Structure of TetR family transcriptional regulator:
Amino acid sequence: MPKKVDHQERRTLIADALMRVAAAQGLEAVSLRHVAAAAGVSAGMVQHYFRTKDEMMTFALSVVRERSQIRVTEAVARLGANPPPRLLLRTLLAALLPVDAHTRDDGRVALAFLAYTAVRPAAGTGLREGTRQLTEFIASLLPDRHDASAAAGLLALMEGLGVYLLGGQYTAEQALGALDAQLDLLFGGSAAG
Amino acid sequence: MPKKVDHQERRTLIADALMRVAAAQGLEAVSLRHVAAAAGVSAGMVQHYFRTKDEMMTFALSVVRERSQIRVTEAVARLGANPPPRLLLRTLLAALLPVDAHTRDDGRVALAFLAYTAVRPAAGTGLREGTRQLTEFIASLLPDRHDASAAAGLLALMEGLGVYLLGGQYTAEQALGALDAQLDLLFGGSAAG
């Protein structure tokens, strides 16, 4: 009887190699050849699971987004039931910042994806819906729930802090300090939450 | 007598081709081969002026930064002598946002460079000094001149708005609305400036 190939296992092996290449060398270095070498399989094997560069990029981002979502959910769960809005917001946004080794790896992949979609707008369709939902949720936690501009600004501030953390322009302390200062501004400097 | 090659002219020709490739296909698509094809010269000729990919990337960013600086200087000059701090800050930050075709092309190059340096920290040394100087200048214009966190946050907000403009997550109107809302927060909602 021929040995049955475990497709799920093989896909996971290749996906892990893809993420390692992306985190170490940048998403632009992700190619069939590189990923195959990192996974120890043939380029044809990689192509069986990811046919194009676009498919590899989209997959890498989906992994990063899933991990971010898990991080946020866990951090928020640790707050217990009904946390004050400011604390909830701070916890959520801080969990999205690339401040340790794992989140930095993921942040590099996300940033490379943003640069990639900036020249290929069609690839970024999913991002737009995610951003819209997130700004609405942020707005629902702000003292003035109808201030869409403040919510959009706070999310942009988080994104910019992430970019500067990855580039080494800001330290983790500076980034978190800027986030707290922003929440002070939005919540009227109140210590509540 | 042999024809004297105009090096400056040829370098400009190749540099223009490099910027066209970067703006259209992304900085990760910038290769000796692509740039040579776009300039209508040999790959060897491109290599004579830019020996490595790092040199091409760094050059592309220097062009983008020079153009940004000119845009900011011109926009600020149009304000006349002694503009109010808030108006000066708004003008400076809005001039850095990718809201039209030219600034979008430059923004895409800058974003790709940020993604590139996120996996190659040494390439980003120049960025860090530029960011430090800019946050200091921003702080000097804020009502509380010693608030380094507010200045760092405002610059990060501008960077994040730029990222979302390039990705199509925010429209120009939304981005400028978020910038104005932030200046309202920082300047106490005063209409001055």
Notes: Chain A is about 75% helix and 0% strand. The radius of gyration of chain A is 19 Å. Chain A touches chain B through 53 residues (CB under 8 Å). Residues 53-77 of chain A form the longest helix (25 residues).
